[in-house]
Amino acid sequence: MMLDKFNLSGKVAVVTGANTGIGQGIAWAMAEAGAKVVGVGRSDMTATREYIEKIGGEFKEVMADLSKPEKAQEVFDNCLACFGKVDILVNNAGVIKRHDAQDFPADDWNLVINTNLNTIFFLSQAAAKYWIANNMRGKIVSTSSLLAYQGGIRVPAYTASKHAVSGMTKALCNDWAKYGINVNAIAPGYVVTNNTSALRADEARYNAILERIPHGRWAQPADIAGAAVFLASEAADYVNGITLPVDGGWLAR
Predict the structure, then answer these.
(1) 183 and 124 in contact (C-beta within 8 Å)?
(2) pTM
């Protein structure tokens, strides 16, 4: 039956940045769909754990600094040890730094690129090596952004990283599809999260964004989670190399 293809029972999903925002919403949705969930990050994930356990799911956490791509293999190995396997990797964790481009500090540039791009590549590489060695299918879902299509304002490192995530998604699809590995990304629209607090605090900017969204509201993390479950499920077995906008119609405007 078609609905059975969306069921993630028996799967283990790793979700980075699962403590809050989009990552938390995705972690909850993966558990609701039946997966065991491993949350990865360096912030407290108690709220994520409590909800998953409340609905009868299983959750374990791996504490890690995802700005250090050289630790990616170690992080993946720690995730693998939690439930004995990994079927789904959700590369969600990300940071944003705002400066005028002419004054953008090198430290902030490197932090954003390491977290939003380099760690995603090396975690994906670790997952792919594991799946290929064990003759397993696998699903990779990364969080890109509307700024994979646009330039943004005062966020050159973030924009560069999200363009790169979408490009890398295509490249990894080309390399790994033959092994039964699906590599896709989601481009969320404007979502109510910690990362957008500065935008939402600017009333003029907030209203200008809202006026362009045909759906008439900013997204909540749960609005993004359904796309992640779809791309992680058997229902998306023939979907590969895409960046799926979930933006309330922003790009159509």
Answers:
(1) yes
(2) 0.97
193-212 pLDDT, tens digit per residue, is: 987 888 899 999 999 999 99
Residue 253 lies in a domain: no
CA–CA separation, 85 vs 77, rounded Å?
10
Query: Does 51 qualify as catalytic in the annotation?
Result: no
Q: Which of 158, 179, 190, 238 is catalytic?
A: 158
The CATH number given to whatever domain includes residue 18 is 3.40.50.720
In a domain, 250, yes or no: no
Which residues form the domain of 118?
Answer: 8-245
- The single-letter code of the amino acid at 231 is L
Rounded Cα–Cα distance for residues 248 and 253 (Å):
10
Mean pLDDT of the chain: 97
Specify the number of domains making up the chain: 1
